[in-house]
Amino acid sequence: MTGQTLHFDQQHLRLTQVLFQDQTDRHNELVAERTWLLHPSERNLTLSGNLFLIEDMFSPSGWVLIKQAPLPHARPEPAAPDLHVVPLRSGGFEFELLSPENDSSQAWTVLEYYGDRLERARVLQDWQRSLRPETPFHRTPCFLTNTWGDRSQDSRINQAFIEREIKAAARLGADVVQIDDGWERGVTINSAQSEQNGGVWEGFWNTDPDFWQPHSERFPNGLKPLAEKAHTSGLEIGLWFAPDSWADFANWEKDAALLLDLHRRLGVHHFKVDGVKARTALGIENLNHFFSMVLDKSGGQIVLDLDITAEIRPGYFGAMPVGTLFVENRYSDWHNYWPHQTLRNLWMLANWIDPMRLRMEFLNNVRNTGQYAGDPLAPAKYQPDTLFATVMMANPLGWFEVSNLPPNFIERTAALVAVWRQEREAMSRGTFLPIGAAPDGLAWTGFLSVAAGRETGWGLIFREDSRTRQHPFSVPELGRETYRIEPLGGRGICTLKNGTLRARIPRRFDYCFFRFEKE
User: Fold this and answer.
1) Which of 109, 410, 416, 515 has the most Cβ atoms closer than 10 angstroms to its Cβ?
2) Hey, what domains does the chain have and what are their CATH numbers?
3) What residues contact residue 198 under an 8 Å CB cut-off, 6+ apart?
4) pLDDT tens-place string over residues 102-148
5) Model confidence pLDDT, tens digit, residues 263-297
6) DSSP secondary structure string for all residues of 135-180
7) CB 397 within 8 A of CB 329
8) What's the Rg (C-alpha) of the chain?
C-alpha cells in the first residue's frame, strides 16, 4: 500500500468515518457515521471507507478526506484499509491516506473548510460539481420518467405505448421520457420474455451483433419518429443501456460508439447505465475508458445515470464526473415503496453527496393500495404533488407509466412541476442543507438551498405523520437576520428570523415550498 500523509499538531480532533451503502435492492440504510475523539491511547486506528471528516475542536475548521474509488466491498482488493491514524509522541496525529500501489483509479482529495456546517456543505458540493462537465445537461436537474416502476417490464413497450407516454409526460411537465430495457432487439434476463427466449445479462455482442438495434416489431420505423415526437412536445426520449461486462468490458469501444451514434442521430442525452459488473482492476479501467469516451466525444452533452441498485459497480465515488446516480428500485407491487423511506435516503445522503448527483423516485400511489391496507404510512396517504416534492431537491424520477396516471395526479403534480422548473436552475446553484430530523414517517424535516452570500435561498419543509401542526427549525447558519418569505407551493406558512425557521402546516403528510430573501 502507498499513500500520502497528513500531519496535524492539534491534540483535540474529532474524526468521523462516514460509511455508505449501495446495492439498494438488498439495503435501505445507506449512510452510517462513527465518531472518535482522538486520543493517544487509541494507537494504530485503521479504517476503511470513502469519506472521513476531521474537525478541530477549538476552531470552526475542518478537513474532508474523500477517496475517489468504488465502495470497499466493490474494489478488487475489498479488505485493504483506507485510513491509518497514528498518535504522535510530540502531540497531534498523523493520518495516512492509503491506496494500492500503481492504482490510479483510487485517488484521494483533501478539502479544507473554515466555518459552520453550511460552509462545509458548500465546499463539498462545489467540489463535486466541479468534476462534472459545464453543460446544462450536467448542471441543471432533470425530471425524467421511466415506465419500469409499474412492473410491466418490457411487455408493453412499443411505438404506440411510448407515444402515449410522451403525450402524458408533456402534460406532467417532465423533461425526458426514458425507454427502459425492451427498446433493443436483444433479450435480457429482466425481460418478460426471458424464460421463453433465454435472456442474457452480459456478452451482448457475442449473443447477437445486432443486439442493440431497435426492436423491429415494437418499433418498425425505428426510434427516430419517437425522438421527433418528443421534441415537438417539448421533451426528449432517453434510453436504458447495459455496457457489456463480458471479459472485463472488452467491448467498451463498441459500447461507447453505440451511445455516441444514438446521441448524434436521435438527440439522446440521457442514458440509464445498468447491468454493470466491474469485478476486476482491468474491468474498472475499461469501464472508465467507456465513460471517458462517451463524455469526451459528446462534449459533455451526454449524461449517464449510473444504476447503483445491485452488482459490483462504481457507486457514489467511483465515477463521479459521468452523471447522476440512480439510487434505488422501489415498487408498490413488491410492497417496498414508502415515500418517507425515499425521502429519508435523500436526506441522509444529502449531508455528504451533492443532491444534484442523485436521481430519486416517486410512484403512482393509487396502484396496489391493497398491499398497504391498514398501514399508517401508506403511499396513498400523500397528495400527488407532495410525492413529487419528496424528490424535487434531487433529480426527480417519475417511476411509473405516465399514461396510466389518474388525471388529478397529473394536474396536481404538474402545477408544482411548473414552479420547480422556474426555480430549479438558480436553486441548483445553491448549497443544499438537510434540516430538522431525519425523515422516519413521523418527523418534521426538510431542506434548504442557500445561495452564495446567504442573502437568498429556498426552503422545503415536510410535516410527516406528526401530531403537531407547527414546528421550529434551528438554522443558525442563516444568522440573526430576518428573511422575507415568498410561498411557492404546498399548503403551509413559514417565517424565518433570528436563526429559527417556524413552519405551520395544517395537515399531515404535507409540505411547504418557499423562496426567502434577507430584509
Assistant:
1) 416
2) 2-115 (no CATH), 141-347+365-385+401-420 (3.20.20), 431-518 (2.60.40)
3) 187
4) 777 789 999 999 999 999 999 999 999 999 999 999 999 999 999 99
5) 999 999 999 999 999 999 999 999 999 999 999 99
6) SHHHHS---EEEGGGGS-TTTT-SHHHHHHHHHHHHHHT-SEEEE-
7) no
8) 23
